[in-house]
């Protein structure tokens, strides 16, 4: 199986109603395609981890990347995995903002790097911590 973590920027017209549509669609498609993962929306930026059979995942990523509701898609991690990180979630979701503080260690730092377009290499340790935190919530 393959696991991809990417960030993106919500386009200007992005509204709350879009989130509902994205989640409903994602969960329906992901169940059918045996994909799982998590999505965080914070102050106009997305962080998504998505995993599953490689062919299905790559095909779905092409569609996701073409979605006009977001732009600036940057793949932060891509690796083969033996076991799912989010077995229980067709797409776990959390919305946070800076005012809500830092729900997972390093989350703010990760989103700061995303917003600044900084080299994801520096973000990776914090990113793994954020994913671990969500992972434990999904079990
Ligand atoms: C941030 C973001 C994350 C998304 N994640 C997924 C996803 O995990 N799975 C999925 O099928 N669609 C996801 N989508 C929606 C796709 O871009 C696209 O609208 C959808 O896959 C098309 O579904 P359809 O084939 O049913 O028309 C996401 C969209 C956005 C903006």
Automatic annotation (TrEMBL):
One of its GO terms (molecular function) is FAD binding. It comes from the Bacteria. Pfam families: BLUF. Gene3D superfamilies: 3.30.70.100. SMART domains: BLUF (SM01034). Residues 1-92 form the BLUF domain. InterPro entries: Acylphosphatase-like_dom_sf, BLUF_domain. This is BLUF domain-containing protein. It comes from Labedella gwakjiensis.
């Amino acid at each position: 199986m393959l696991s991809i973590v990417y960030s993106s920027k919500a386009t200007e017209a992005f509204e709350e109603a879009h989130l509902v549509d994205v989640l409903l669609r994602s969960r329906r498609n992901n169940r059918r395609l045996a994909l799982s993962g998590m999505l965080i929306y914070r102050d106009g930026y997305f962080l998504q981890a998505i995993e599953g059979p490689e062919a299905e995942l790559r095909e779905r990523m092409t569609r996701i990347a073409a979605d006009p509701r977001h732009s600036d898609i940057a793949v932060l991690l891509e690796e083969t995995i033996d076991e799912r990180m989010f077995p229980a979630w067709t797409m776990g979701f959390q919305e946070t903002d800076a005012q809500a503080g830092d729900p997972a260690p390093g989350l703010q730092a990760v989103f700061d790097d995303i917003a600044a377009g900084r080299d994801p290499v520096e973000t990776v340790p914090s990113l793994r911590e954020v994913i671990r935190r969500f992972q434990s919530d999904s079990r």
